[in-house]
Design a protein that fits this description.
- By secondary structure, the chain is mainly α.
- It folds into 2 domains: 244 residues, no CATH class; 40 residues, no CATH class.
- Helices cover 75% and strands 0% of the residues.
- Helix 2 packs across helix 13, helix 3 runs antiparallel to helix 10 and helix 10 crosses helix 13.
- The two termini are 39 Å apart.
Amino acid sequence: MASSAFPGPGGRPGQGRERRSGGAGPRPAGGPDSEPARRRRRHASLFRVVLEVVVLALAAVFVILRAGGNAGKVGAAFYHLRWHWLMVSLAAEAVSLTALSWLQQKLLRVGRLEVGVRELLPVTMASNAVAQSLPAGTLFAEGYAFRQYQRLGATRALGLWAELSAGAIASAALAAVAVAGAVVVGSPLRWSLLPSLSFVLAGALVAVALFRRADLLSRVIGAVLARLERVLPASLCGHLRAAEQATRRMSEFRPSYGLFGACLGAAVLNWAMDAVVMLMGLLTVGGPVPWRGVLLSYAAAQLLVELPVTPGGLGLVEGGLVEVLTRFGVPVTQATAATLMYRAVSYWSLLIVGWAAAGWLTVRNRRADRSLDAAAKATPA
């Protein structure tokens, strides 16, 4: 993420930016506001929309064809839901969100920002809705959460460090869930997946360790820049310099190993509870549970969520998860119904709640701004 996209410490979006002097003046022909540039953006947006529609249509066709003549049975499965399992899935999703908010609270408190889980929970729900509403929405969600952290009093360095550290910890926790899934899945698949997944987990843990020691990360970036500056593009070198400076400012945040271990445990709990929602989807529609394949199926679904093709992996997750579950022996009718139930809880319900939280945060922030403006006007110069 580009640091210039964020407001200054303690400020509102847009504050702290330099004003242009004089008139607008002539714009360069190839600038970002030129007609060719605008045309390219329109074409890119149109291509993105067409791609999303095609992916969603193909996913729908795949699910329908996969169900074959059992499509009517998929609908019938929703007439005989085990409602108690659905309630368990809703409770598990609530625990998942709370664990993620707790993790963020502990990281922000490293920078001596006293904030409670209750204050961070709406931020977690809103940023999740942003992430699930846009292709590659994780980047937009990180920027949104960063601005909300600043609203709560975080400095620029603390907000950026907490958001990046939380992302690294979450990635390591998901890799750990995938490794656990590979361990329990069975011999043939275990030995084909375990080496690569273990390598991913090791890399994610190294990233977590580097964010614990941001001064080391800054030195690593500086060393790379010193060795490769002559061969790298100037724009990439500029980004590396900005990253080196940013990580140097984060060096004051050095949590204990125990705290980072607790945060990693909270991240694992976050993913595990969401995996429980998928498990409850199977039980809600009366489907068999492939116990050895649950964690691996869940990790595969989360990989599809992160693909920057459709918002929240919409269409990709539905088609992919149905296929994975059937490979583990779940009948296609119940695999389809369970997948739809899982997405109803973990995607659509969180999307509604998250945007409601985002609206509440917007109203609250505007009221706080008006109060500050009124106090500033009432204070004599």
